[in-house]
Sequence to fold (159 residues):
Amino acid sequence: MVIRSVSMLVAVAFMALGGCAATSGNTAAPSGKIAPGMNANGEVVDPTKVESGYGQKVSGINDFEGEITGTAAPGSRFTQLQIGMSMRQVIDIVGPPTDQGAYITGKAFIPFYFGSDRSRFELIYRSQGRLIFAGGSIGNYSGGNLIWIINSAAETGYR
Fold:
């Protein structure tokens, strides 16, 4: 009787945890709410506060999936970019950034994880926006591939 109760308790706990994991991602702005760092027209007004999941999901080169947030400024070279491009390709099109930086993601702390997206690289362009690249896997020290375009005419150009 005790073993049956314990096994049922474990099964219920796994179902509850599985349900939490499946519903934790927010893929769209709740109706009536304005996304962080954006205005009601979908324009990015503060690129430092923008969160993933509020932009347009797109498939790019070599089946890379990414996101485009905001609308491109008039005359912006960001319109020529495609999700999945390498950092070198992007710089050849858009030119050198005003500022840049890198940071690690939570995947870097997963034991025995050797896949990609352990780090992110960010290129910032004044009055155009930000470009986010997913770093390669262990041993791949290239700049990674473009996964997120944040269009913002309000970009100051610094991190």
Q: What stands out?
A: Residues 1-28 have pLDDT under 50 and may be disordered. The longest strand covers residues 119-125.
